[in-house]
Amino acid sequence: MSEATQKATMGQVKALVRRKLRRVPEHEEQSLNIYPMMDIMTIILVFMIMQVAQETANITETDDLRLPWTTSTEHQTEALPIQVSRTEIIVDGQVVLSLRNGQVDPSQKQGGANGFLITPLLPRMQAHRDRLKLIAQRNPRRPFTGEVQIIADHRTPYRTLSELIYTIGQAEFSHLHFVAVESSSASTAGAARH
Fold first, then answer.
1. Where are the domains of the chain?
2. Beta strands in the chain (DSSP E)
3. pTM passes above 0.90
């Protein structure tokens, strides 16, 4: 019998297969690297938060919220809106607590009736502060300034405003803008700084 017609044994076949497999590089597992996608999503999220933060407060006067008049011609600035009506305090469009005839219930204040710190408002303001500081870290062109727009009913008691200012000050918001309606036109609103 010639070499060409010889039958290979099982051992020879296995050895041949092993040699051929050694020559072929091992298959590398291909997977999707999600880290760049997570970076992109973080950037998009920060951008969207900045866009929402840039929108000025949409003020609709109601029976519970009548703005005071001003002769100032300064216009609204970009700041966190805090709305104080006769019945509630709203921060950035979300109700934080209810008021009784424009006053904070003593049970909602640290120290009771004599206290100035509004307990449900403080953590909400601290959350907004942390969010705005995170935006400032990611975008140095938008530093945290601690600015708020106070949109208060003209009948709001001075004590309520004092408690509000004290509480937001504890959350590092120190630049206050009070929003009022310009006396020349009831449809435009100006902000008087204090």
1. 37-193
2. 69-70, 80-84, 88-91, 94-98, 109-110, 117-118, 147-152, 175-182, 189-193
3. no
